[in-house]
Design goal:
This protein is mostly beta strands. It has one domain. Helix content is 0%, strand content 78%. The protein contains no helices and six strands. Strands 1, 2, 3, 4, 5 and 6 form a six-stranded parallel β-sheet that branches. It comes from uncultured Segetibacter sp. Pfam families: DUF2807. This is Putative auto-transporter adhesin head GIN domain-containing protein.
Length: 74
Amino acid sequence: TNNIDATISGSGNIDCSSVSCNDVFAHVSGSGNIKVFANKSIDAKVSGSGNIYYKGSATNINLKSSGSGKIIKA
């Protein structure tokens, strides 16, 4: 897959960790969790208590978090 845009506002979970993507945008606003697989780039933002877990060989990495949430390389 070329790209994926995964967004959670509020609560919920998205698991795309078994889908290899070139470019990933992941945004959590609230208490949800997102799991992604990024090969080239990842733009991940967390605001709140949610988490983003990412794996893959992305070299263009932009990570921002505010609140108690975390962005974790899996």
